[in-house]
Every structure is written in structure tokens, then in C-alpha cells.
């Protein structure tokens, strides 16, 4: 088990499927993330909370891959409670970015154990590279239809988008508090 790995898995979804997923997500947006939620780092874009339940069958291949990678690489105790969890839908327009941050919570009952990203960009975009601490100058290949999984304690960022629109979906695998 290697907790410091960033795992990519290629092309879970075709471009046609990506468009269909985006269409369904837009129907299920429950609320926009409040401004200032991440006051400790620069976060520029539009971010929405999406309930998992209406999308689980459509996103099943990605979610199963997240579970398989967790089991093989990380081995974290995760609830995988899709009916009550939510996704974050992240839309970065030109100049959108998210500076160095981690995906940790201050919850005494449960913690984020795994960050799972799905690239849902419908068009090619410029910039918007995913970078992780330890490899801050290395672009991690993460194009439309691909998944990416990593430990939420790894500092990471999205560089400024220079052209087009970068769209991702985040699922945070939560489990009992770290011991």
C-alpha cells in the first residue's frame, strides 16, 4: 500500500458519454458552493454540490474503478455511501485555478480518505494542469474521460486555465476518523 501515489486511469468514458454525464449533472445541481469556503487558498471557478444518488448508475464504471484502486493501492476504510453523499462539480473558465491545498476535514466522526476526480471537459482546454506536491513541475496527464485518485493529504493544485473550460467531478471517499 502506497499512500503517496497519484493514480490515473484512462478513458473510463467516451466523449459522447462525457456530454451525457454533464447533461445529467446540470439537471441535478443542488447548490453552488459558498464563496470563501476555501479561504486559505486561491480558488477561482464555479463549484457546485451534486447529490450522488441520481447519478450512481451513470457513473458506475468510475465509482467501481475508484473502489478497485482503493482496495489494490490504498486499502482505506471507506463507507462508499452513495445515497447520502454528494459530488463536487468543478467548472474552471479562463483564468480559473485552485492553488495548493489538501482535501481534509475537521470532523471528529469521519474523514476524507480518498479524493477521486473525473475529467468531464467537453472541449480541449489550455492550462488547468493538475499538479501534486513532490512533483510540482510535472504535469499529470488528466484528459477528458479519465479518472485520477489520490490521498487527500497530498497537497495539489490546478494551474490557471488559459483557454477553454476545464470541468471535473470530485467524489471524496469518506470513512471513520484517522486513528
From TrEMBL:
InterPro entries per UniProt: Oxoglu/Fe-dep_dioxygenase_dom (IPR005123), Pro_4_hyd_alph_FE2OG_OXY (IPR044862)
Domain Fe2OG dioxygenase: 83-175
Chain coiled-coil ranges: none
Name this polypeptide is given: Fe2OG dioxygenase domain-containing protein
Amino acid at each position: 500500500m502506497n499512500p503517496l501515489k497519484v493514480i490515473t486511469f484512462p478513458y473510463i468514458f467516451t466523449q459522447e458519454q462525457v456530454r451525457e454525464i454533464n447533461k445529467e449533472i446540470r439537471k441535478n445541481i443542488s447548490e453552488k458552493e459558498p464563496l470563501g469556503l476555501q479561504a486559505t487558498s486561491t480558488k477561482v471557478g464555479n463549484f457546485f454540490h451534486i447529490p450522488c444518488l441520481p447519478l450512481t448508475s451513470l457513473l458506475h464504471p468510475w465509482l467501481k474503478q475508484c473502489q478497485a484502486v482503493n482496495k489494490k493501492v490504498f486499502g482505506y476504510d471507506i463507507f462508499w455511501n452513495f445515497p447520502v453523499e454528494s459530488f463536487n462539480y468543478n467548472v474552471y473558465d479562463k483564468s480559473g485555478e485552485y492553488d495548493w491545498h489538501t482535501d481534509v476535514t475537521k470532523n471528529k466522526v469521519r474523514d476524507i480518505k480518498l479524493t477521486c476526480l473525473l475529467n468531464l471537459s467537453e472541449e480541449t482546454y489550455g492550462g488547468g494542469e493538475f499538479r501534486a506536491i513532490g512533483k510540482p513541475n510535472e504535469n499529470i496527464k488528466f484528459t477528458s474521460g479519465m479518472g485520477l485518485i489520490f490521498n487527500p493529504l497530498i497537497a495539489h493544485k490546478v494551474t490557471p486555465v488559459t483557454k477553454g473550460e476545464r470541468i471535473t467531478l470530485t467524489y471524496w471517499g469518506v470513512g471513520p476518523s484517522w486513528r
